[in-house]
Amino acid sequence: MKLGATANRAARRFISSLPALFGVVVFTFLLMRVLPGDPAVFFASGPQAGPEEIAMIRAQMGLDKPVPQQLLLYLRDLSQGQLGRSLTTGQPVLVDLRNRLPASLELTLTALLIALVAAVPLGVAAALRPGSLVDHIVRFVCALGVCVPTFVSGLLLIYVFYYLAGLAPDPTGRIDIFMSQPPRVTGFLLIDFAIAGDWEGWQAAARQLMLPALTMALFVVAPLARMTRASMLASLGSDFVRTARSLGLSRRKIVVTYALRNAILPVLTIVGIVFSTMLGANVLVEKVFSWPGVASYALDALLSSDYAPVQGFVLLMASIFVLVNLTVDVLYGVADPRVSVE
Amino acid sequence: MSEAGTAPSAAGARGGAGTNGAAGPLLSVEDLHVAFSTRNGVVEAVRGVSLAVSPGETLGIVGESGSGKSVTAFAVTRLLDAAGRVTAGRIRFGRQDITGANHRQLRSLHGAAISMIFQNPRAALNPIRPVGLQIADAIAAHESLGAKEGRERALDLLKAVLIRDPEKRIDAFPHELSGGMCQRVMIAMAIAGKPSLLIADEPTTGLDVTTQKTVMDLVAAIIAERGMAMMLITHDLGLASRYCQRVVVMEQGRIVEEAEPKRLFVAPEHPYTRRLVAASPTASSTIADLAPGSAPSSAPAEPPKPAPGTPPLLEVQDLVKRFDGDVTAVGGVSFRVAQGESVGLVGESGSGKSTISRLVCRLIDPSEGRILFDGASIGDQPARGFHASPLRKDIQIVFQDPTESLNPRFNAFECIAHPLRRLSGLRDGAALTARVRECADRAGLPLGLLERFPHQLSGGQKARIGIARAIACRPRLLILDEPTAALDVSVQAIILQLLDSLRREDRLGLLFVSHDLNVVRMMCERIIVLRNGRIVEEGGRDAIFQRPEHPYTRMLLDAVLHISGPSTVAG
Amino acid sequence: MTSATLRHTVWVLRGNPVTAVAAGGAFVLCLVALIGPWIVPHDPIASNVANALKPPSAQNWAGTDQLGRDVFSRLVIAARLDLAIAASAVTLSFAVGAVIGAVCGYLGGRLDRYVGRFVDILMAFPLFVLAMAMVAALGNRVENIVIATAIINLPFYIRFARAEVNVRRNAGWVEAARACGDSHLSVILRFLLPNVLPAMAVQVSLNLGWAILNAAGLSFIGLGVKPPTPEWGIMVAEGARFIATGKWWLVAFPGLALMLTVLCFNLLGDGLRDILDPRMRT
Description:
- Chain B is an alpha/beta fold.
- Helices cover about 35% and strands about 25% of the residues of chain B.
- In chain B, helix 3 crosses helix 4 and helix 6 (about 180-190) packs parallel to helix 7 (about 210-225).
- Chain C has 10 helices and no strands.
- Chain C has helices spanning about 1-15, 15-40, 70-105, 110-125, 125-140, 140-170, 170-180, 185-220, 230-240, 250-275.
- The radius of gyration of chain C is 22 Å and the shape is globular.
């Protein structure tokens, strides 16, 4: 019964997120319309292409039709998975994105994991002893953490761990150029190496991943720890924790079952937002570490006025975000019995 | 031993009930001092309280807000929040001194020897854990037992607190239960560890009148059945007088008097107790009785006789209000208020009484029905534009929570001047100042406070500002939406007197919305009883109180607790 | 009342040395942004290849870059541009967001649902990516950085103002204002906005830091400001090429400037919360 309600809720949330996704599609479409320059000119054979050729290309691309009709054509292309072709790589955008997405996801998810593992215990420790040394340190780190831009912290990490300490490998790419790639199964190097049983390669990939993941994690540890601390403090001061104390429950039961489980709910809701910030920060981190992900792909395309990949990238990010929010929603629905009432 | 029950500072009443058995008191507190560290330095909330509870006895602690009664209870159980601390005194439970008990000792004490129930029961339960598991947690805190046995025992406890459908409720979450059921679950948890003392901290505050009675009857029955002692902390003298064998009265952190309720409430000795008892409305008290001598009481009520043929001041016909999602808050209500008449709207939460007050005040639009003021239809003027109506100043309202009803960024002067500027066209200047001062004076607000902001004023002072603002434009109909529900009884007494005399002086029509039958009886000539958005009974004050016809009205009246000796409670 | 506010402010600052320091820092920053060009020790644009990539010294306090330009002078000059971008972006989104949010929060209903949906769509983007795309679409210019930063801040202000107004719209004093003859519009303008503004001011201060980081991030990836204009993000981007060879000062000093600026505004925001809350006054 509970499961059915959760599935029901997930379906409803998904349907209600469709307008948002549709909005994104329309937005990216309009974005392309207002871009400086005429797309037809880009697709023409060269700068010397005559007006006839451009007009022909315009007709071919449907650019001479009224805007609503163009939108329909665009939607038709989208539904067939056609995102256009990248001018710089010469590949269909969809193929490029598919090849590069695992690199970005591996980085982002690893960073999120590191951040959560660090932030939740820190926040809880600070909340259990407010005003203590631990609390002051955590609060100081949080205040500082949100102030350092990722591109600066990434570069400083390179300076310390690569230049000074020599612990980290050359900060370019996912894997040493001389290492052989594992057979592609998931595209996640750590998983693919593990499947292939190549532990040396796994280690190399992990070492390469460490600094960029750490950079990104540092960026989001602060908001997560701050939120954990605040909601843990609120739930430790709540009436139901007082009830639990008045009944003589063990400290572990009070802290974990009563306080923490309630405190984690607000943290869960901001994980979605944190993830979205990380998708944005990906652009910067991938640039700093020459990481071959979707964000650096889009950035290169953007700087060379190649707009189809940018469009595809924005669309991809929005879809991922909708998916992540859906997951968070479903998890929240499982964790908090109150939401299913609506 | 029995001397422990007397406070050094207590005025009179030595020995109290004196029924202590040979075993000595279960709980004794000697010269307890509790201090809180705040932004403004250390504040002493409890200053030398001594009391004792014998096995099987029910001791009441009564007092108004800030008297330190709840702090005393939390200090006894050592559940004070981080800012509070016991600075002096001794607390003994049985033969054990628990003043300096460590964590482990307290843990074995909590739940197994002393347990508590709280006000706002829904917040007191873990919102994301089924209530059955929470009860099982409470049992497992003091004995080891498996999940299956825990569930069975939890079920037994749910049956013991008379929850309907216990097999179904055991898996429910707190938000799926009513406030009264949450309090029953809380009671089940409190008795799970078989304690010998139950501390009940305002256990019925926030519950509806009828629920209050059933919950308290249940607590009393369980206490009697298990031979437990109880410490009942309440602001409600009626509650204390009905359920306690002995009562202590606290004021500003000290015990001022201690006695059996019969003696205490019939012949109070300490001046504070006398004031408190006088201020608590009873079945026969009048407005003038509430605070003798503090306000010149005007002539006794004489129902104003309007000239025949004149339309009533307010007439409401078949009023319906539906909110989004087809929730019908008010379902076809008709009544009248004559010029200078006072009509009471009585009902429990969800009865639609507050919605009616906002409809009549033209703050929200009715879905159906007519509202006539002085014979002119005002219900069809949209609420959005009513601020510009010439009738706006004739209908004014006083809200429930005095704090909430004042703009935090306006000082008292601005609050009262606001309607004068808007509705009476008085701009800045001597005339405005004079009118504001006159209104403040009539509402009994010291003129020296006019420059203060709401957060710098007490609840009673804020209530006076709300009243001064409402009467500033000389309205003809004044709507009072639970105007004293958030106030202490002694403040309530003075505010009620004020409202009553203002009404007589200005011949105001009064629509008095309240859940408190005693208050309505004193303030109103005619009473309308509401339930679920409909009128169940309407009639003159005496008719309703002496010959109620509808069973619901009778139930409401039965639930009212009157100050008298303890009644026998079924065991 | 004004003197009371002043006294209260002084009292709060005395009790919160951190806020006092942050306020001082913010003041110095604004001062530097104003008079920067007259106090720099060197010309921030003039290159001197013979003196390139020198570490910090008595001559060049923060070292020199690959063209031999004085890093410290460039940092000082850049303050004006960075602060101006952030301040104008935040002002823009604050003004628009507060009004839209307050109106929606107060009126509720269909308008509120549509705007809420729009805000959801806006927030469905990773916002930095959105800013990137907008700068690309509108043109790679500084004013478009401002607009893009303002737009990605907008949903937060709308949400914030909406929530703040929404919790107050059924408060007794709002209903009392209507009973006293105020129209809906006047309730929003004279009652709700003044009560919401303090909380919004805190948001502004916190947002200023975020806006600076966003603008710097955009110029770091090559959007908006163009070299050789001194700007903190660009300076980091230029220094990035030399970090692997140990030229730390090219990254560390602009990074430090960014960090301290954001820290100042964040701490100030926290402090403002205390100062502006009338309930904290005694």
